[in-house]
Write a structure and sequence with these properties.
Elements lengths: L2 H10 L5 E6 L7 H17 L4 E6 L1 H5 L6 H18 L7 E4 L4 H10 L5 H6 L1 H9 L8 H4 L1 H11 L4 E3 L5 H17 L8 E3 L32 H9 L20 H9 L2 H7 L6 H10 L4 H27 L2 H29 L8 H14 L1
Parallel strand pairs: 1-2, 2-3, 4-5
Helix pairs in contact: 4-15, 5-9, 5-16, 9-10, 11-15, 12-15
The structure holds tryptophan.
């Protein structure tokens, strides 16, 4: 379907543009989450272009490889909620909810399982690499293996049109689209095919850890968290991996694989140069100087620190405020979950009808059966 047809189709069906996305509560959110998706979500929420925005804390998905750590998941639900609110997700505009509270999602997952083959799941690149990272080998929990199906349930239950996510989630959205097409062709056009929204800026796709490693991870201890103090952020930036060949200030330096420059690609804007580094017009000039030689790491790190402090300070302040009233956060999540549950229940009922498993509501079926047995007697 062409894009215009798609929106035309949505209008006809009185469906709106709907956002759904979320995160697993396995730790505090870091700046990789922020540039990869969080920041965009807040912009989309505030754009007024969407009829509904659902933001889900995916605790059930987190449990698929944390079944022995329920306390960790429970603790991190509140951490993630605090990070969301701190970033500017607004419960007046977005429905914030907890996945496990919506039992309809589990039910949808069970039916979708019949539309997906084991071979297809095995080919899912995200699942493949996550299995590798976790050294599961032969002991992959079935729930973990099938989580892309449950993710399809998350998205389709809300008839989401738009899923703002990090680039690593693209295979999940593709898998969801396949499930939607299959369902709609086998049964009826009930489900909506979602589109992923990933950052335009390449540097935001997979922000490296401060040690230059490709992935930020808690176990590697290389993350900058949204909740980190100003001091910690500064220390982390000043210790960032740069170019091991750039020893003297006068040495020519490399930009590729240089973490500070990757972060500058992700975070810097023209006005930052005016404010903090007026000797350079833009990032291109700064890079050129570094490559020529004569520009020290400390200078670029201080510049990055100024930029990141400016971005993170308001987030930190808001987080502090929300931390003072934890019961209210639970109240927000509870209200959001109740609202989300209603929407998911509506979709589930349409799904069951399409699948002809709504026996007790199907008066036609009851009448038909009655006729059949009457004729037989
Ligand atoms: N897989 C996502 C993550 O690891 C979390 C998630 C679960 C999600 N269900 C989703 C994201 C649906 C987008 C849409 O962070």
């Amino acid at each position: 379907m062409l894009k215009n047809d798609f929106y035309g189709y949505m209008e006809e069906n009185k469906l709106g543009k709907i956002i759904l996305t979320g995160d697993r509560p396995t730790g505090r959110l870091h700046v990789g989450h922020y540039v990869g998706s969080l920041k965009r979500r807040v912009e989309l929420q505030n754009s007024g272009d969407y009829d509904k925005t659902y933001i889900m804390i995916a605790d059930a998905q987190a449990l698929t490889d944390n079944i022995e750590n329920p306390e960790k998941v429970r603790q991190n639900i509140i951490e993630v909620a605090l990070d969301y609110l701190a970033c500017g997700l607004d419960p007046q505009k977005s429905t914030l909810f907890i996945q496990s509270h919506i039992s309809e999602l589990t039910e949808l997952t069970f039916y979708y399982m019949d539309l997906v083959t084991v071979a297809r799941l095995q080919r899912n690149p995200t699942v493949k690499s996550e299995i590798q990272m976790r050294n599961f080998e032969a002991s992959i929990p079935v729930g973990f293996f099938t989580y892309p199906i449950s993710q399809a349930a998350d998205i389709t239950a809300f008839k989401a049109t738009t899923v703002p996510v990090g680039e690593d989630q693209l295979p999940m959205i593709e898998q969801t689209r396949e499930i939607v097409r299959k369902f709609n062709s086998v049964y009826e056009e009930v489900l909506v095919e979602p589109e992923a929204l990933i950052p335009q800026n390449q540097a935001c796709h997979r922000l490296p850890g401060i040690d230059g490693k490709a992935k930020m991870s808690k176990s590697l201890g290389n993350c900058i968290y949204l909740a980190d103090s100003a001091d910690d952020v500064k220390k982390k930036i000043m210790s960032m991996y740069t170019d091991p060949m750039h020893i003297q200030v006068s040495d020519p330096g490399h930009i590729e694989g240089n973490t500070v420059f990757t972060y500058l690609d992700a975070f810097s804007r023209p006005e930052h140069f005016e404010r903090y580094l007026p000797d350079y017009a833009n990032l291109e000039e700064l890079k050129a100087h570094y490559q020529r030689g004569g520009l020290g790491d400390v200078k670029i790190k201080k510049f990055l620190n100024n930029i990141m402090q400016e971005e993170l300070e308001p987030i930190r302040q808001r987080r502090k405020e929300y931390e003072k009233d934890i019961p209210t956060i639970y109240e927000i999540l509870k209200k959001g979950s109740e609202a989300a549950k209603e929407v998911a229940a509506q979709t589930l009922s349409e799904v069951k009808k399409a699948m002809k498993i709504n026996y007790f509501e199907d008066m036609e079926l009851i009448r038909e059966q009655a006729e059949k047995y009457k004729n037989e007697n």
